[in-house]
Specification:
This protein has one domain (about 10-185): Rossmann fold, CATH 3.40.50.300. α1 crosses α7 (about 175-185). It is built from seven helices and nine strands, in the order βαβββαββαβαβααβα. It is of the alpha/beta class. It is globular. It binds adenosine-5'-diphosphate and guanosine-5'-monophosphate. Guanosine-5'-monophosphate binds near residues 17, 77 and 85. Guanosine-5'-monophosphate binds near residues 17, 21, 85, 86 and 105.
């Protein structure tokens, strides 16, 4: 395309809870600090080790509702009893500045991004098997059994929708899948 610079790409990483999205996104960031990982707003309570403003902006349901009303979210969804959304301005500013942006969000949000930004690359991270997904979700040890059950129910819906995505990557090995994601984002993988 001549000598015009490629616009920075918005990449969405989606997939069932416990498949390894956060792990892969963190690995991509380690290898490519120039990637900007969006910080979502959520009404969920912080897990041990999560920091406000780093992993999420932890907000009240009232604050979240105000963000929705004011159109401040690029996309948002309810997931397993909590609300999650992507602050619009930060994403738009990064993209305008040429910074590659990665969103780690669930299925309903991925669909909204597809509708709002058809050029976005939608990547679905799939587990090697359902048994392994359960092992990872349980093994993470962050949710109560009833919350795990709810997330696994939702996982069935998400797994059934993987053909809507541009690419499906099976998360066998974090290194390998992170390298493939980096390549898809158009960055050097050396
Ligand atoms: P998600 O963000 O999709 O909910 P996490 O990144 O929190 O998932 O990963 C869930 C659990 O699975 C974590 O304990 C993580 O260390 C583990 N995990 C992630 N990727 C792999 C992998 N390729 N092989 C084995 N375990 C993994
Ligand atoms: P968790 O509670 O495990 O951090 O996240 C639950 C689910 O919400 C995961 O699938 C995660 O990708 C998704 N999620 C996190 N942030 C957002 C967001 O801003 N929007 C949407 N739609 N989903 C999100």
């Amino acid at each position: 395309m001549g000598d015009t610079a490629q616009p920075a790409r918005l990449t969405v990483l989606s997939g069932p809870s416990g498949v390894g999205k956060s792990t892969v996104a963190a690995r991509v960031r380690d290898a490519h600090p120039e990637v900007w990982l969006s910080v979502s707003a959520t009404t969920r309570r912080p897990r041990t080790g999560e920091t406000d403003g780093v992993h999420y902006s932890f907000v009240s349901p009232e604050r979240f509702a105000r963000m929705v009303e004011r159109g401040e979210l690029l996309e948002w969804a309810e997931f397993a009893g909590n609300y999650y959304g992507t602050p619009r301005r930060a994403v738009e500013e990064r993209l305008a500045a040429g910074v590659p942006v990665l969103l780690e969000i669930e299925l309903q949000g991925a669909r909204q991004v597809r509708a709002a930004m058809p050029d976005a690359l939608l990547v679905f991270l799939a587990p090697p098997s359902r048994e392994e997904l359960i092992r990872r979700l349980v093994g993470r040890g962050t949710e109560a059994p009833e919350v795990i059950a709810r997330r696994l129910e939702t996982a069935e819906v998400e797994l059934a929708a993987q053909s809507e995505f541009d690419v499906v990557l099976v998360n066998e090995d974090v290194e390998e899948v992170s390298r493939r994601l980096v390549a898809l984002m158009g960055m050097p993988t050396a």
